[in-house]
Amino acid sequence: MSTYILGVEENIPLPRNATEALPPMSLKEELEVRARTIKLIADLQGKTIQPDEQDKKDARELAEKMLKDPVANIDFANYRNETLAYLAGMVAQYDQMLVKDLADYKLYVVNKLVEQSANPDPKHSFPAIKALGEVDGVDAFKKRSEVTVQVKPLDQVEKDLLAKLEKLERLTNLSPAQDIVDVETTNVDPQEDTTT
After folding, report:
1. Is residue 7 in a domain?
2. Are 138 and 106 in the same domain?
3. What local confidence, expressed as pLDDT, does residue 97 receive?
4. Selection from 89-98, 132-141, 148-157 with the highest mean pLDDT
């Protein structure tokens, strides 16, 4: 059996409580930590986390509060585990409903479209599917054209251009010569009949 000796650093004060020991976290980070802890404890106990309608209502209210004020002082300890688990699921499903910039708005809209595309009524699902196909990155209805750029040394480019010019010159020499006709300009009155 191996013996392990831990290196203990001296003169480091211990925190007074567990809250002081935790690093500062955003609401989302704190919610994720609490949700993982709730799930771990439920898994260890072999219990399922089943939120009721009141838990879902409380979670939606919390989500709205977090959306309105992302730095709000919410004490998650005042809520049931089922409420926090449901709220964490909502946040995970919509990948951070706390929208801060346009990329988050886009993600929120795409998630809503995915949700709506599962509607059994084609009157609602088809427009959602069509809108999803037009989303940047999906581009299901976009026609694409590819351009291949070749980087060549200057000597090679000059050789290629000279070859093209020689080919063009050979083609113009092979074409039949065109007769050139000199034309004189005359002033014609449009009222006059020139056909007689």
Report:
1. no
2. yes
3. 45
4. 148-157
The DSSP 8-state label assigned to residue 142 in this structure reads -
Polymer length of the chain:
196
Residue 113 within any structural domain of the chain: yes
> Between these two residues, 63 and 172, which has the higher pLDDT value?
63
Written as six digits, the tokens of 75 are 């004490």
Q: Is the pLDDT of residue 122 over 90?
A: no
**pLDDT of 127 over the 70 cut:** yes
Instruction: Give the C-alpha separation, 29 to 31, whole Å.
Output: 5
For 143, counting Cβ atoms within 10 Å of its Cβ (0-12 exposed, 13-18 middle, 19+ buried), the class is: exposed
Segments forming the whole domain that contains residue 53: 23-98
Of 106, 89, 95, the residue nearest 38 (C-alpha): 89
* Sign, Cα dihedral of 192, 193, 194, 196: negative
H or E element: which one contains 67? helix 53-68
Q: What is the overall mean pLDDT for the chain? A: 81
Q: How many domains does the chain have?
A: 2
